[in-house]
Records
---
Amino acid sequence: MKKYIGYIAAAVAALVILRSLKKSNFKKNVVRLAENELKLWNYGNIKEGNAALMPALRSYYKIGTGTNKSDKYYIETAWSAAFISYLMKMAGAGDRFKYSQAHADYIQAAKKNRLNNIKTFQAFKKNEIPVTVGDLICYPRQEGITYDTPGKYYAHCDLVSEIKPGVAVGIGGNISNSVKKSTYKLDGNNKVTSDNVHVIIKTLI
């Protein structure tokens, strides 16, 4: 009996370790993908419309959101949410992420996940929780938007790729018509203090 219990305990421990590895692997994968795209766009120096980068831009829409349109549409439509959706899908988020051309869609989904204690992607106010690599930092692109704002609105989110003392580094798409890094101020507990930020999405997979 003791031997049987020992086997069960070992199996449970192995499962816990496996789940932990899967979580860490997802975050590593999504950050690696973001860094690769950053290099592809020459750290923001290549702009949308460049013929060599059109295959990448098409992929953000087609793979990330299932959107099949003209190249003119891809260039002229804001593609930052498609970029994040592409990263999440390619990294293996599966059906756990709300893929969309609008950041607000997956922000609202993450808020709902938190209310229902679904531990995939959960939204928090910036003063509630520290950020870590693999999370999303989001800010509105219109007036009067807060964490509690329901429905659709214009926003932007960056994937956190690095944490430095006092600073979170994010990678995002459609920044100055390219893929670039942005920085956000942190307090001593790694909570975001940048004024424009209204939502942190924790990556829990």
Note: DSSP finds five helices and six strands in the chain.
---
Amino acid sequence: MIVLVDIGNSQIKVAISKNANLSRIKNFSLKDLYLVKKYFIDICNKEKSSLFYSSVSSNNFEKKFRNITNSIFTKVTQFKSTKSFLTVKNAYKTPNKLGSDRWSQVVGAHMIYKSNTMIVSCGSVISVDYVTSKGSHKGGILLSGANRYTKCFFDIDNLKDIKLTRKTKPSLNVIERTTAKQISTGYELMISSSINKIYSELNRESGQDVLLLLTGSYAADISNIVAKNKIIEPHFVLKSLSVIENCI
């Protein structure tokens, strides 16, 4: 059995992979490494397993994670950013500067969809990457994540405690009547406008409809996106790792 792990800036996402199919997807806080260890032990007590993971965490956290996992799993393999993987080419001159989570999604998107694909990953940071149908990664854009956006109001006394709200359904309002809703709607408009602008430019350059792939915890919350061809995959890093591991 293969255990897949996506270690981000604030969360650890874990899934079980069998025949490239995901199951038992769980989220842990980066602070709860002891709970992750317990979960890993429970899994491996039932069946011998290997670990395949991606990480953008600090070196200190990486050492702690490896110390734990090396004694639990039969094999531990880290997926890292490289100049190329199979037929996919990295746009970065220094490939390891591209986060391995982003690189895994670029590789995974090409291997699964084989089309011009714009990947929008919504996490601590919103990253945009573009990979062509031929497997050429052209680069990307970085935008502020939701939590970091609210921090820009921290030095304004009557705004510092306001947090973004996750909408249960798209709002028809552009102008809101409360400060909290104005901040949330303002952020949503800023992000959706940026995504629409980039998507429009990529469509124009490619001369065809680009696939828009929305991934990450907040992917389903982004509304007002103008795209004929759109897919929402909240756990696409894990799905990509599963596809990649199956090819190694």
Note: The mean pLDDT is 90.
